[in-house]
Structure formats: C-alpha cells, structure tokens
Write a structure and sequence with these properties.
Helix content is 69%, strand content 0%.
C-alpha cells in the first residue's frame, strides 16, 4: 500500500476503516486480536482510534506493526504528539467524580484540582476590599475577554493569569457578606476568561485547573448569577474534553452542567450545553442525537432570547451568526467522523452553507477569532465537497488570520484542512497550500 503523507494519515486511516466497513470499536477489537496472535498483551480502545484519525497522536512502533499486519495505512512520521497534552484515564475519571460531587453540594472537592499561584501578580492589594474593588475587577475581566477574543489566548493568557492571582488575594480582605458573594462571582468569571485563554493557547490541563477554581467560587457565591456561571464553567470543561478528543467525558459534563443551569432557570446556559452535546455526538458518529441536541439548543436559545442576556459570558453565544458557525462546526465534525460517505458529503455541504451564512451575516464587531474558526470549517468543508476554489480561498484567509491572532487551538486544526484537501493534492496550488500549512503547524 502506498504510504500516505504524514498530515493526511489520520484521514487515510478513517477512509480505510470506512472502506472495510469497520466502526472505531471494531477496528480497536481487530488490532487487539492481532496483538493476541503475536502474543503481545496489548489492548486498543476506540478512543485511541479516534485520536489517531483526528491527528492528535501518532501510533507507537508496536501499533504500527499491528496496523501493517491488518493491511491498514501506516504513517511515515516518527511517533510523537501533535496534540500538546495527554490526559491520564484515572485522573480523568477522578476529575469527573470531583465535578459530580461539586454539583451535589460538596464543591470543596474541587480544591485538589486547582492551580498554584503563577507569581505574575500585579501590584499591592488594598487593605479592605469593597464594592469599588469588585467593580474594578469586573471591568478588567471585560477588557481581558475582549483581548482574548480579538487577538487570541496567546496574547491574553499572561495578563489574565496575573490579574487572577492578584484577585485571589482579595478574598481574605473582603468581610461584607453581600460584597463577598459578588466578589466570588466576579473572580469566577475572571477564572473563566483565564481558562479560555489557556484553552486557546493549547494549555488544556491548565485551563481545566482554572475552570475548577472558578467553579468553586461560582458555587460558593450562593447566588442565582453564580449558579448560572457554574453551568457555563462546566460547559467550558466539556469543551476542553472535546478538544482532547474525549466526547464521552464531555457528555457526562454536559449532564452535570444541566443541574446548575436548571437551578438558575438559565435556558441560555442550557442551550450552550446542548450545543456542546451535539459536538460530542458528531465526534462519535451519532447523527440522530447530534441533530436532536442542536434542535433543542436552538429552541432554548429562542426562549431565552426574549430577555437580552446580561451575563457577559453569554453575549457572544447569543449572536445568531455565532450559533450558525457552531452548527457548521458540528456538521463538519460529523463529516470527518462518519463512515457513511453520503452522510459525510451532505454534512460537509451543510457545514459549508452554514459558514457562508455565518460569515456573510457577521457584524463588524464580531470577534476576529470567531471568524477565523468559521473560515477553518469552511475550508475543510469546501475541500470535502470538491469546491477547491473556495477551499483554497478560505485556507489563504485562515493563514493570514493566524499571523495576527495568537491561537494554538486554531493552529492545531490546520492539519484537518490538509487532510480534507488530500483528494485534490495533484493540484499544484493545493500542494503548495498544504506545504504552507505544514510550516505553520511546525513553526507554531
């Protein structure tokens, strides 16, 4: 069998599996059986197959021999990680238990998962912290959120971490109960912004720590606003899990997040969670559940939209074009994961149509990073449906965007464009573009 290019290998494996009419669990079983024949005590699970196909990791030499033995494509690149962080399965389960306990009222279980101080803290603290200091923190959080959205997590992560470390010290200096509750919510939102900056910078474990920190503060506030924010923070934890190719954990977190969302009566947060569940279902190739989750998310958004959302962590999500962009992403994920070729093509076509709608309807003040992710989905989808001209145009815009937006998360999606363009590699323009994508990934 002709060896695929390194960036396209995950896509090649996916197509080979589809040709063999094997599900991810069935391929995992086939590799485990092949190992048993050789006397090796090795087990392959569906999550490993999923990570290979997404380009998160490359197989170790032993797995390469097993892949070769069953006639599957084998990468030429030496094993190594293209995804920045791994998650130990035992720690993953323990963390889920901690979040579940927090939802049941024992939020102190989250303390073991929180970060140490970074040492980046700004300036001295006031002797006593009152409402004025809380308002100052709130304005600073809004500024950092705008910085992250406009220029990427790589720009926002250090100032956000410093601000949060300084803000943490204010808790011991706040004695008024009402102000302290407000401070808990404000710090929780600052932890949320800091976590998203870590997430966008490719620091997923650090993002999880900051979200755990924010979740404890939000729940400690014992306010409706804090409870709503707790649901949003669990949504963010699910997004981190998806980025680490762990849709099963993401679905569990979605269930946990619905508890505070329902308690706060916040349909908007519930919509966020349902939209995230749709992404997870797309990743595991369950289109019916994916479609149902998107429909429920849209219904919840319409119900919640009667009141203009005041919570700052919800404002971008309530933008209609941003939700269209999310729907496009979900359909694009399904196109990449399903073994049904007709469904893959129709899903890619839907994703392309939705990104066109999202990009065309974007207001001038829409965050630049949201536009970047729409273009990434559009590029992949265009190549999948054979619209090479649009694929090339969107990829060129993506490459331009990442020169000014510091987003490791975006860079980590570039191999997906290269994989989608593989059927058109005979085109000199596409081949040159793939080379530029490879340079962007290796140089990031």
């Amino acid at each position: 069998m002709e060896q695929p290019t390194d960036m396209a290998w995950g896509e090649q494996l996916h197509r080979w599996r589809a040709d063999q009419k094997l599900s991810q669990p069935e391929l995992a079983e086939k590799l485990t059986a092949a190992a048993a024949v050789t006397g090796a005590q090795m087990v392959c699970d569906p999550r490993m197959i999923r990570r290979w196909e997404k380009g998160a990791v490359l197989p170790r030499p032993t797995y390469r021999r097993l892949l070769r033995a069953i006639g599957a494509p084998v990468p030429t690149q030496q094993p190594g990680r293209t995804h920045p962080e791994e998650v130990d399965p035992m720690r993953r389960r323990a963390f889920l238990v901690a979040v579940a306990s927090a939802m049941a009222g024992s939020h102190e279980t989250l303390r073991a998962w929180q970060p140490k101080q970074t040492g980046l803290s700004w300036g001295p603290l006031p002797e006593r912290v009152g409402a004025e200091e809380v308002e100052r923190l709130r304005r600073l959080t809004a500024h950092l959120r705008d910085l992250d959205s406009a220029f990427g997590g790589g720009v926002a992560v250090d100032p956000a971490s410093a601000a949060l470390d300084r803000g943490t010290g204010t808790l011991d200096r706040c004695t008024e109960l009402a102000v302290r509750a407000d401070l808990h919510v404000t710090l929780a939102d600052l932890a949320n912004v800091t976590a998203w900056a870590h997430h966008d910078s490719g620091q997923q474990n650090r993002a999880r720590e900051r979200l755990a920190q924010g979740l404890e503060w939000a729940l400690s506030s014992d306010t409706r606003e804090g409870t709503s924010l707790a649901g949003h923070l669990v949504f963010a934890l699910a997004r981190v899990a998806l980025h680490q190719h762990d849709p099963e954990s993401a679905l569990k977190l979605v269930q946990f997040g619905q508890i505070p969302a329902a308690e706060a009566g916040d349909g908007g947060v519930g919509a966020q969670l349902r939209a995230t569940a749709a992404w997870a279902y797309a990743m595991i190739g369950r289109p019916r559940e994916m479609t149902d989750s998107l429909s429920r998310a849209e219904r919840d958004m319409q119900l919640a939209a009667a009141n203009e959302p005041s919570d700052p962590w919800m404002r971008v999500f309530y933008c209609h074009v941003d939700f269209a962009g999310h729907q496009a992403l979900v359909h694009g994920v399904l196109a990449a994961h399903t073994t049904d070729r007709a469904l893959a093509e129709s899903s890619a076509a839907t994703a392309l149509e939705l990104t066109e709608m999202s990009l065309a309807g974007s207001a001038p003040d829409r965050p630049a990073r949201s536009l970047l992710f729409d273009r990434i989905v559009a590029a992949q989808s265009a190549f999948r449906v054979g619209d090479v001209d649009t694929g090339v145009k969107m990829t060129a815009e993506v490459l331009s965007d990442i020169t000014v937006i510091s987003s490791r998360r975006a860079v980590e999606r570039l191999p997906q464009i290269a994989a989608a363009s593989a059927p058109h590699a005979r085109s000199g323009v596409v081949a040159d573009l793939v080379h530029v994508l490879e340079l962007a990934v290796t140089g990031a």
